[in-house]
Fold this protein.
Amino acid sequence: MEVIKTEIDGVVIIEPRIFNDDRGYFFESFSQREFEEKVRPIKFVQDNESKSSYGVLRGLHFQKGEHAQSKLVRVIKGAVLDVAVDIRKGSPTFGKYVAVELTEDNHRQFFVPRGFAHGFSVLTPEAIFQYKCDNFYCRESEGAVAWDDPQLAIDWKIPFDKVILSEKDKYHKCLAEADYLFDYNDDLYK
């Protein structure tokens, strides 16, 4: 796998080595050993999958405190714009984000470390999205930042009037008003 660094330290794009022939293709979608050598030590404990239609926007979500999660995300059908926002107070990249298009054809994966809010928008008629988490989900520890925060100014690549949100994603606070953020100086992996 090739690891592509982004403008935010720790947030990386992973491109697998794909073997194509007249039968189709093969690639190794995850190797614990190689991930730890090239990205960071980690133990994923939960895999999730969602199916969404065009215009669905999920995010920007995170898990608070001891339930903080890293995510390794990918698309197996369709295409999404995937976004990671640095919400670590004191970070030199606080409030900055990385956006990457993940598709069934490019097979890219995106690593979102702890201390980041995460979301995605669906760019095709349908998308199936898979992700690994390094901590178990905890409803009581849900946190979020407004997807349409003007300070972040994320271009989700879909018209505003086509965005489909869950009821709770309609009412999250902007980053400047958030009542919970991470501290850049805390070791979120201890």
About this structure: The mean pLDDT is 96. The helical segments are 32-38. The longest helix spans residues 32-38.
